[in-house]
Amino acid sequence: MKRYFITGIGTNIGKTIVSAILTEALEADYWKPIQAGDLEFSDSLKVESLISNTKTKIHPEAYRLNQPMSPHLAAKLDNVIIDLNKITLPKTTNHIIIEGAGGLMVPLNKEELVIDLIKKLDAEVILVSQNYLGSINHTLLSLESLKVRNLKVKGIIFNGDENKASEKYILNYSRVRCLGRIQQHNSINKEVVLGYKSIFKN
User: Residue 11, class by beta-carbon neighbours within 10 Å (0-12 exposed, 13-18 middle, 19+ buried)?
Assistant: First the structure.
């Protein structure tokens, strides 16, 4: 069973579309442990609307928070404390795609971050990167944080406009594998997800 944790170098980087594509490509289960805000159209519902296979199971979130903000603050407003001991991997024999909230260093409570959740779940990381001024720094810092904590990295997926020079530098310096790239789309639908399915089969 493959267990992949999808994280990004920042917010609105494309974690959910990457999660949907990988879920479809692997016919994997999908799980977002912490959803902060947008409960009526959560990332779980978005992924469910984008996949076509009948094998995937969408597992319920461990925490559903009302405000679209950092999980530790959203939890405080809901009078909840996010307890990593209460976030347990869903029981499944299928591959599972786990989508994080924000980036690696996003706080979940007073002492723990998303990166601590990854370690607890013992998942292999797929990092979503995007080219913008500063993205080399953000990508390499993310990879360095994973390395320091001895977390396994499957590879990087680039989302958005291509920048060959930036991507080459990131890959050469980090020696992390590029798993593929996704172009920007005005609207994401099932056809777009299916179009990328073959890229991520392996």
Answer: exposed
Q: What's the whole-number mean pLDDT along residues 51-68? A: 96
Q: Residue 183: its pLDDT value, please?
A: 80
- The catalytic position among 2, 15, 32, 119 is 32
Structural domains in the chain, CATH included, are 3-200 (3.40.50.300)
Nearest of 69, 73, 134, 123 to residue 95 by alpha carbon: 123
154 catalytic per annotation: no
Band (pLDDT 50/70/90 cuts) for residue 191 is confident
